[in-house]
Amino acid sequence: MPDIDLDSFRAETRAWLEENCPPEMRTPAASDDDQCWGGRKFTFQSEAQKLWLERMAAKGWTVPDWAPEYGGGGLSRAETRVLHQEMARIKARSPLSSFGIWMLGPALLKYGTEDQKREHLPPIARGEIRWCQGYSEPGAGSDLAGLQTRAVSATDEGGDYYIINGQKVWTSYADKADWIFCLVRTDPEAPKHKGISFILFDMDQPGVEPKPIRLISGSSPFCETFFTDARAEKKDLVYEENKGWDVAKYLLGHEREMISGMGHGGGGKTLPQMALDSVGVGAGGRLADPLMRAEIAMFEVRAAAYRAQAERFNDEWKAGRINPAVSSMMKYYGTELNKRRNELAMQAGGTGALEWESEESNGGKSARDWLRSKGNSIEGGTSEIQLNIVAKRVLELPG
Amino acid sequence: MPDIDLDSFRAETRAWLEENCPPEMRTPAASDDDQCWGGRKFTFQSEAQKLWLERMAAKGWTVPDWAPEYGGGGLSRAETRVLHQEMARIKARSPLSSFGIWMLGPALLKYGTEDQKREHLPPIARGEIRWCQGYSEPGAGSDLAGLQTRAVSATDEGGDYYIINGQKVWTSYADKADWIFCLVRTDPEAPKHKGISFILFDMDQPGVEPKPIRLISGSSPFCETFFTDARAEKKDLVYEENKGWDVAKYLLGHEREMISGMGHGGGGKTLPQMALDSVGVGAGGRLADPLMRAEIAMFEVRAAAYRAQAERFNDEWKAGRINPAVSSMMKYYGTELNKRRNELAMQAGGTGALEWESEESNGGKSARDWLRSKGNSIEGGTSEIQLNIVAKRVLELPG
Amino acid sequence: MPLYLTDDQDMLRDSAKGFLAVKAPVAHLRKLRDADDAAGYDPALWKECAEMGFTSILIPEAEGGLGLGHVEAGVVLEEMGRNLTPSPMLPTAVAAVAALKKGGAQHRDKWFPKIASGDATVALAIDEGAKHDPAATAMRAERSGNGFKLSGRKRFVVQGHTADMLIVAARTAGSAGESDGITLFAVEKGTAKMTADPRRLADSSFAAVVEFDGVELDADAVIGEVDAGWAPLTAMLCAGRAGASAELLGVGQGTTDQTMAYIKERKQFGVIIGTFQALQHRAAHLYAELEVARAATLKAQQLLDDIVDEKSADRARRAVHTAKAMTGLATTLAVQEGVQMHAGVGMTDEYDVGLYMKRARTLAELFGDTNYHADRLACEAGY
Amino acid sequence: MPLYLTDDQDMLRDSAKGFLAVKAPVAHLRKLRDADDAAGYDPALWKECAEMGFTSILIPEAEGGLGLGHVEAGVVLEEMGRNLTPSPMLPTAVAAVAALKKGGAQHRDKWFPKIASGDATVALAIDEGAKHDPAATAMRAERSGNGFKLSGRKRFVVQGHTADMLIVAARTAGSAGESDGITLFAVEKGTAKMTADPRRLADSSFAAVVEFDGVELDADAVIGEVDAGWAPLTAMLCAGRAGASAELLGVGQGTTDQTMAYIKERKQFGVIIGTFQALQHRAAHLYAELEVARAATLKAQQLLDDIVDEKSADRARRAVHTAKAMTGLATTLAVQEGVQMHAGVGMTDEYDVGLYMKRARTLAELFGDTNYHADRLACEAGY
């Protein structure tokens, strides 16, 4: 039986998008820099980008399934799906890329007070405030709960607040964000998971100093961020004091859902094609470098098998048939494959792939991608952590 | 300056060997079964084998550097070397294969009383008593010192003795040996290394039951051996009670010196030759199976490099320049290489190498060698134990 | 179709698992081996397998079978792999059925009922060299009167000494290396001038060297078309390879289950060795390899069951190459880690892990090893 | 000769180590890089290296050098690798010297004094494709009057934009793939119609693409014999590959030393991560790979220093293939494990491990990667 309401919603949406989505916004964004991130410091790359955000935000469609009072479109799940299908149909870009939407929003919707939601969600939806996250610290990577950034209660004429001192690392776009959602230690005496709070504060204050991190692959969105007597209002504490770890776990779970696409190798040329272009064909129509060919052939077997596994994982996940800890296996295998793929791409590219700045090398793209890929098995939980999780929670090994 | 004494010793030895070594004993032994092991239960395979043992034993040359009073030849190190060179010159076989010579002898010479030496060494030298060793137990493999076989003191009209109960495993040729040198627990209350004794006793008694172990590769020299109220005389305790671990460690050190030949792959065909014979030549004169070729080529690199490392290790060892724990690295790498070599030999041999009994397959030699090679990284300390040792004693990693 | 078993397939698995656990656990293989059995399997058990419906899975309903697919065949084979059950399931009820589906009615009418009832088994005579390479088929089938005369030698004919019929690939045209010019023949047991010399393999199964010394066959012995045997041969090998992948997976999973159980119990230095992090990481890596191999195998089976045209057939064939290559990698790792983690006892015949290692080796070689399939994929991808 | 360093060689190592630790630690590379230096190395440091005698090691005593061997050159290169010291040592004082020893007196008389004094550097123009393959040399050198005219393009000419002389391999006969017909030429900086386009590489070093647009050379520019350049080319490449192996080994050892120090200090979950058994086993395995690579390298160096006839030259050449292949494997593992064990900080430019990873990649590619050398050994062994 056709859903008449949904059909009419689809027709209306299609018409609205046709009319309102600027033609320039109907092509994919080439890179992070090409996306619309919003926020106080953001400079729109084009009038079209600005217009597209404004029009979508006005309808609440930057966050279509949030309630209208929080800046959302109030759409049902089915309507939201229709909207995404219709956007995909005309290849419309997402109007807004935002850690506020992807991460803080879900956390506030689950753990925030009504006041917090009304204060913080609408500016996120409209792209007015850009957020960054403050999780990892130099001494707390795999052991996130070992974080040391301190928040001490204080009061002044402005009310109750926290004084924050410490350092975060791997804060993406901290130098461009307006506010931060941040894990801080509020009880240094408690067991480590029990003394952490989840707090929001404005980055635009003297005690906050973000410093971009240079990676081995070149510049990056990551920052180190230093807090020296930074101020956070008590009203911006999310959930209860010393219960921030619950919020963090919820958010990390969210993050892990995004991983199963790993190991597919991005678009562009396949590894065999890359090798053929670089090395050429030898005896019997085979790749001229026989040992490279063998390595690539073996990689391709694993890559094809992993694509099947990714399909299976997604199918089982959707059907609720799977131990969530299996996602650790996916993360491990996918990232290791992607690193291997980049190693082989460097081998295939040979001396040309070593170039770092030349035009032919597209600014050293192969080499930079290769080096950047080494982070895959570190960020979002190291391979070692994933293997620990699989051993304990899937294989149920003791200890 | 030529050593005149040594030169005349060489001439005499050469003459004696020419006259006394039967021609049949001037070819290498084909297998363990082909060697002369001596002992009460031994059946000589030939008159020549018997004669060769008797003649050499009469001169004390089964153990040329032991003192004459212990059945040895009383030769100096230099003379012993000359004897070995002259034997090698005519390809003379060793007259006697013996754990008594290789293992117990050195231990008794270092830790035994004068009475013990005079009682036990001459029959070893003459090949009259065949020994086996009782170290590992089902519950004490890598953790050898965790052994549980109990020895309890007792006295009767025959004197002071121990009553032994327990089980040993991996006792090579226990079913063919006359006596055993055995680690037993004499103090169950003491820390595990401090309650162990090293004791000798006769296997020919009702309480001793050796049972051959069938391996995955087929029959083997190994046995399980069960002791039920077996008797060992107190006079046959070597070194002090509860200090047997010192003797054991000394013996294990001896064992480890024999390892650096691993990974060379025995004689016979090289892996590439084996593959060429089995798979044939394809495009461009290369092995017809290109991925097998790549695997073999990469193996050959590691094997050649390891040969250099074995040479270096031996040179450094002789010069006393090396951390003894490096031998663990050699054992690890050499045995892993040998396993790899056998995997590749099976791949190269293909379906023919799967045959287990046929004549063409020489009774399944490839398959049995392959399966037997899996034990290389287990016996004499597992690869895991070797890696632990390298991590701790070479790399000095903590914990 | 989601990439996991349907409820019906799950039920089939439970039923096969239950049946084999009782009738043919590893002890069954040991019994046959230690009795120096000359057949390589237990015909009585095989009849029971037929009664369970295992032999009918791939036979179309219209021809008296269950009309199920490669997924279902794989479910049974995986359980056989897990139990190391000796049986002619893979050549007879999977590979041969797939070939005969592409053959004439005379073959189907004759053999499908007997296969279904467990009264006939079939063996495949394809390989000639030490390594699987069907395009290299060189054995000649000369035209002779209305029929053909076969001369040459086939190797690694699994259960060739007991089979009631052999499917034989021989060259009626062209030369070794070409896929055109090969013809498939059905050759019945007892045909004159054919002799099978059974060789016991490391895993206690048998494969025969079969000599054809001018074996005379009628024209209707041909399966499919003369000179165009590559099509039924490919169908047969795809089925065989997907089935071998499933069985390999069962071998890998079976040994790994035992290994995990062992390291959860075994103590060294007073500590359960399964707590050692180095072993845990290796175990987790092994788990990943097996899961990836499992997905590749299921994908191949589903695609085989989904063939509608040449394009989907090609896609399925490639997926089968991937599955056989990947299960070879994963299960080889599983048996190696199995023996090493069992350590001393893993080297003894008393424990099962050595039997798994031997079976894995035979299956890895059967219908082409990892290198063969990875190489095929590379050639097809044009490098 | 025992396979370890002599006392004299140990002293040389200590002296190189001390010198480089002060003059050219990793900070020196960072300084050059961050200043966007256009030369790729520091000429003043190079003069000091010459004063230390590094540039004279392989030059015969009779020609004003130290008359030492490849072991000694390797000792210095290993320390340079350990410190990531940018210098023209490998092409100039090792590879070029080995080639010129096989060349005419005109070259030796001219270049040896300048190389020894640090006043001249040499670059090698061999590669034409993306992968090292000297036999594939296709660039033509046509006869022209009494001399030759060179046309074509060379790639990956390390420090080609700063070198005072280029050793160029070009084809005077035969065709790509043949070792006969190649001739080596000495081409001086500033020669007309030759242009070098420097490309900065990932490791901050420079390699040039060099265009020869009808470059005219006198007959005495030839190194060795016309059409028979394969001999001096092989000598040069053997020296270069053994040297690159030593430098790679230094890179692998240098980064591993830092990694071991890091995991002995770094805590996670309140525990020093170096206590985790999984890391310990990987560290021990890495140690083994590096030691095996070290032995292979020293063996190759000793055999190069021991060449007396064709047979010993062949043996040395094979040992060099092994060394370069094995150091490629070991050091690649070392930098990969280095970054992973450093985890987050390993990804930052602030720590050195990323610089080691980049340098390792360049050296792995230089003079042929592991696959190239393993393949050569296989071809020579007849498979």
Task: Provide the CATH architecture of the largest domain in chain C.
Answer: Up-down Bundle
Helix proportion range of chain A: 40-55%
Secondary-structure element sequence of chain C? Answer: HHHHHHEEEEEEEEHEEHHHH
In CATH terms, the superfamily of the largest domain in chain C is: Butyryl-CoA Dehydrogenase, subunit A, domain 3
Q: Looking at the chains present, what oligomeric state does this protein adopt? A: heterotetramer
Sheet with the most strands of chain C? 4 strands, mixed
Shape-level CATH architecture of the largest domain in chain A = Up-down Bundle
Total count of domains of chain A: 3
Q: Uncertain regions of chain C: pLDDT < 50 for 5+ in a row?
A: none
Arithmetic mean of pLDDT of chain C: 97
**For the largest interface in this structure, which chains are involved and how many residues does each contribute?**
A-D, 49 and 47 residues
According to CATH, what is the class of the largest domain in chain C? Answer: Mainly Alpha
Q: What's the CATH topology name of the largest domain in chain C?
A: Butyryl-CoA Dehydrogenase, subunit A, domain 3
User: What spatial form of chain C do the alpha-carbon principal axes imply?
Assistant: globular
Helix content of chain C: 40-55%
Q: Tell me the series of helices and strands of chain A, N- to C-terminal.
A: HHHHHEEEEEEEEHHHHHH
Please give the count of helices of chain C: 11
Distance between the termini of chain A: 54 Å
